[in-house]
């Protein structure tokens, strides 16, 4: 009798344990956690990119909660300190140890390039939120981009320059991937439009000094100087541009919007007034969605969102929509759900091209103006639905 009761007890115990196991499995099926491994330069030269992208990610989650596809979304943020070998090591650890479903972030092109083989090998969707060299999306079939490409904006400013009596241009770019794209796509289009690029100048990515190249620009006396520099270098460039007196020498400044970056623009002072740029995002974009986005972002952060913040915010939108569509599946299914997505962003309408996995978006021509006491890139022309020109060859 005693023994029997004992075994009944054991049976009941086993049944309970079984139920508990079933419960855990059910929790995994309709709950559980999906991890997103975000690698950004939170320290080092490109730290402003990390700060802006992270703030964009956080704002998305503050507004939309931490559930997608029936799972709890967990961000695992890692700082690569702008060192691509570190990005690669962190990506490997995030995939193998943390078992992340998505890799995201990537402040500079070399960081994205270093991670691409890991995304391919582990079949992990990789959302590039910041880096912008055209060829990045070709480095892995698992890469999807929510930032922009340098060819998109460089051909747009070349067309505007040619239509606005600018004939002779000197170009100045940062000497790495996105600078190569900006220099080439600007020159090819501007030449096709009948203009001439009389000199092509470059400065190093790390700790550039603009004084020597600006002296050359002065001597060349072009109608305009076309510039691409990565986010975070614009303020120092504008300071040296003014110190050399180029703003008073009758040489117009045209650029990609990275140079009049919203993160720094208001500190640049009057030298920035009138600078014309092409880009996909301005904090002054007049849509209702953007006005709400900027107000919420500034309330949360005490700084202005720039194009990097929007890349992070839209990257989360893309990931949430894909998780919802696949009920939380990962790998190839999740990647496929990202392809062809269309939605309204604070920047305007965007599409993830299903073939190239790259972003298609409106590009705006903007002029720096003072609005209610602060400097902004005020959009005055729109080139609709620009595909990456780097993909058509
Ligand atoms: C890249 C980095 C930037 O900060 C930027 O504004 C554009 C491109 C890059 O490394 O791809």
Number of separate helices: 11
| Strand fraction | 15-25%
Order of helices and strands: HEHEEHEHEEHEHEHEHEEHHHEEEE
Mean pLDDT: 93
Largest sheet: 9 strands, mixed
Radius of gyration: 24 Å
Q: Helix coverage percent of residues?
A: 40-55%
Q: What ligands does this structure carry?
A: 3,4-dihydroxybenzoic acid
Number-wise, the strands total 15
Give the uncertain stretches in residue-range form.
1-9, 11-30
* Shape summary: globular
- Kindly report how far apart the N and C termini lie: 84 Å
Oligomer: single chain
**Which structural class do you get from the secondary structure elements?**
alpha/beta
In short:
This protein is α/β, with parallel strands linked by helices and 393 residues long. It is built from eleven helices and 15 strands.
Walkthrough of the structure:
By secondary structure, the chain is α/β, with parallel strands linked by helices. The chain has 11 helices and 15 strands. It has helices at residues 2-30, 47-64, 84-96, 109-122, 150-163, 177-192, 211-220, 234-243, 288-301, 307-326, 331-338; strands at residues 33-40, 67-68, 71-79, 102-105, 126-128, 143-145, 168-174, 196-203, 224-228, 252-256, 276-279, 342-345, 348-352, 359-371, 374-386. Strands 7, 8, 9, 10, 11, 12, 13, 14 and 15 form a 9-stranded mixed sheet that branches. Helix 8 (234-243) links the parallel strand 9 and strand 10 (252-256). The protein is globular, with a radius of gyration of 24 Å. The termini are far apart. Residues 1-9 and 11-30 have low confidence and may be disordered. The chain binds 3,4-dihydroxybenzoic acid. 3,4-dihydroxybenzoic acid binds next to helix 6.
